[in-house]
Protein 1
Amino acid sequence: MPLYMDIHHLTDGVSAEDVAKAHAADLQTEAGYEVSYLRYWVNEPHGKVFCLVEAPSAEAASTVHREAHGLVADEIFQVQEGA
């Protein structure tokens, strides 16, 4: 299954608590799309969120975000895990 990293640029700011809630919503939505949101990282001062996801396509990953909470990533890249 392809692995993707997505990036959200939230100009209105972001809190780790809000991102945790959005991630929980992703987890509740992902199964219907063969998507698995694995981890996320938050940079509160800069309003950035990074999500690591296994998905059949970037579009499937975006669909889960859209349906779960509406916060679609600004960028998404297919990545390969390294050591």
Protein 2
Amino acid sequence: MSDADDLLARTRAVLPSWLAIYYQEPIEIERGEGRHVWDTDGTRYLDFFGGILTTMTAHALPEVTKAVADQAGRIIHSSTLYLNRPMVELAEQIAAVSDLPDAKVFLTTSGTEANDTALLLASSLRRSNQILALRNSYHGRSFSTVAITGNRTWSPTSLSPFQVYYVHGGQQYRSPYAGLSDGEYIAACVADLNEVLDQAGGDVAALIAEPIQGVGGFTSGPDGLLGAFAEVLRERGILWISDEVQTGWGRTGEHFWGWQAHGARPDIVTFAKGVGNGLSMGGVIARAEVMDCLGANSISTFGGSPLTSAGALANLRHLLDHDLQGNAARHGPTLLAGLRAHGSPIVGDVRGKGLMIGVELVRPGTGSPGEPAPELANAVLEACKRRGLLVGKGGLHGNALRIAPPLSLTAEEAEEGLATLVAAIEEVTP
């Protein structure tokens, strides 16, 4: 038995069976540098998934590793019961780039916990457990976030602390409104929202929405949709939570936050993944009146720890100093245009913004939008791996490729990744 086979057997023996692992022959990633990683056999891969959009700037970014090492040499942990300079400095930086007025920040250890906190704030302030969410959405794996996830493949229980209403607007490709223009699509979704709100009876606490749905397969409605929703919500006093766990920090290229494409400000923003560049970091941003609404005592044992805050602050400063948002805007179109120009019969849709690109695979000859082809997505995943490229997949049917390299991607790496992906698609096309 090889070392990889032995480690896989040990993994299956001691960890839950429901933990998904990529590839027929899984790989152990041993180290990374820049946009590349190496497995234990020494094989190098161009990383176009970044640990599920978490390695935002680069693998082994020197500024982050130094900040973590320096902080670890002083103190690793203290909790929020004590003054914590790295946590405050990080929160100040996040508030400054938040584009929210009178912003306060609460740091957590994950996006799941961030969304938990946002739901707690909204339901407490509004004195309601009614939540609006988008169809095909994903917001985490805790009891409360599973309950509002609109993608059944990631929601293992129907039990819920909330009464949840799902509205249209998370994606256009397979929507019943797919044939409409953007303006008509927005109008239809707003009409649906109003109908759902009338049925709910006016006691809804919040709408939570990803500007681009991550696990859902990098799907979205048109720009302006969430702003149109916000007009309806504010007439009724309902809060808007923007889940920026995957779209935040400039990944879309055109904006720093995904919500900025929609012409209105949310009441609460959640974030995680990329800000820590691999460190366990998430959080919530909200106006002071919203953030301070809780009446009970609270602390966070691990959220905003000195170690993760120091690393995240170094990572965020690097991103801002090197205009990685602009870099995403420069190189994302190379991938989008190249994939769209390829015209494969198994590619039903190419979508996304910046360095957040989805490719939906379909069975050829099955019309429009085409039958989902999860078997082809798995085959492309394997073919990319054999060629030295790591990509992700997702979507309700598991048939969408997810492409999200670190934001420091170079022009040469964008061309290399595109060529590899096209070759992989051609290889598996029937």
Protein 3
Amino acid sequence: MNTYAWPPDHAFWTGTFPEHTAARTTPYLFKGIIPAIAATAEDVLAGFEIIRRAHAAGADIKAHARVYVGKERRDDLLPKALTATAWSGDANAFVPWMQDLVGADRFSLVINNLETVSPTLAAGLGTFLKSLIDGWGLPLGGAEQVAFAGNYAGTAFGIHEGYEDAFLVHLGPNAKNFYCWPAEQYEKLTGGKEPTFGDYQALLEQAEHFLLEPGDALFLPRRVFHVGTQETFSVSVAMPLYTYPYAQILQSRIIPDVLAQLAGDGPDDPLNEPSEMADSAAGPGAVAERLAAVGTSLLHVATGRVRGEAREHAEQRWATLRSNGGWELVEGDLARQEAADAFDPQQVTPGAEITLIAPYQVTTIHDSVESVLLRGHQTGIALDVAALDRDTVSALNDGATIVLPDNQELLTAVRALGATGGLHLTPRSADTEDTDA
């Protein structure tokens, strides 16, 4: 039974959640917090079937599956799992189907970026993610869904350390045992940070134990060692929250952009003047001094530009993630592409209806021209009153259905938004057209 509001409200994230988790630093099991309307084990298996279908079509997608027997990753078995005739029935039929494919009683199937193939799970668990973002904050790398399905005796990765805060949502149909150790305790027990495989029963006796049942969500703080065990088949979905270090964002994106602006523009720019012939007698010392002088000068100028570039990058990242429902933005998002393909711009006519596909949102970037994003795709539509006014954007983000008026600027904007894969379009009915005629 769900003992929490759905979705969790602001008071949960600002009060209940930090109180139970010692200010978000210790594991805690929230019983019955995820209702079946948000996610089920069958939804995960349906997502795997979509991956199999994409494989048969030769589609290049981000979501991918891995097969494990014991602790061994068996890439040789994956083609069989992707191409065999589908199982007939529910999870009860899936288990013998997988056992026959892998030639073993116990197995595990791990699926990354499940949200990119399952609109159902993207929306259902996206409701939880949105409440988390609104109440706790936005992970700057977004989040993803990693599914674990199987009847494995222990997680294939052994007892291992988690590097991000995460929630493990358990979907059943059977229970799972989960064990956690603070990093200091695990290092004291094992003498290091390496994963532990094999017989770790003695370690389990020293762990904090949680019994996960369908609808439960376990909060796993970063740097906590953990492992799951089970006797019967079940499915869980981990939701890691990617909070990239600021230094990593600066190193990978912002600093290179700043330096690229200072690298000189064309052969006539003084910065592109060729280096002098190096004096053989003086050796490399003079070259090093010149490099250091130019580098110091460039970095001095770059320092003054970092703030502006950081602001631009942060606004872009913020709007992109929010528009994608908080899920990390990746290439090869099959669900996005299929939604975009299903959107027929010729059906965007007065009287047609549009709604946003959950959990995606329309967000804005303020640049020389204000632009809108939906599902992480920048469309470059000017947000003026004639095209897409703020009231319309707010209504769409609140889940409203908009009946399109006879406004050509708005219709043009909607056609562009549809290419993002974030809009659902209900064409104008033939009855309405006949009535107007």
Protein 4
Amino acid sequence: MKIGCLEIKLGAPWVHSLKEKQMIVRSLVAKIRNTFNVSVHEIDDHDVHQQIVLGITTGSNSTAQLQSVLDQVINFIESNYEVSIDEIQIDIL
């Protein structure tokens, strides 16, 4: 079995408080989990209100399947949220 890991750093310059950021993070995490059946957590920059860093993992026997799911997650975030994608790191182990 192989594991795909995605670390994605998002910018949200219009966010003005940590409370507002947490509402966005909760929405993102829930929708990504429900849509793609992957594990999602905020992994860094918890106290920076205009940065969101998510860690997303999934497992499969196929490297192509892992890459496809992680690419779909990226496309989902781009098309459904008003955030900029500042950095993406994908590792397949």
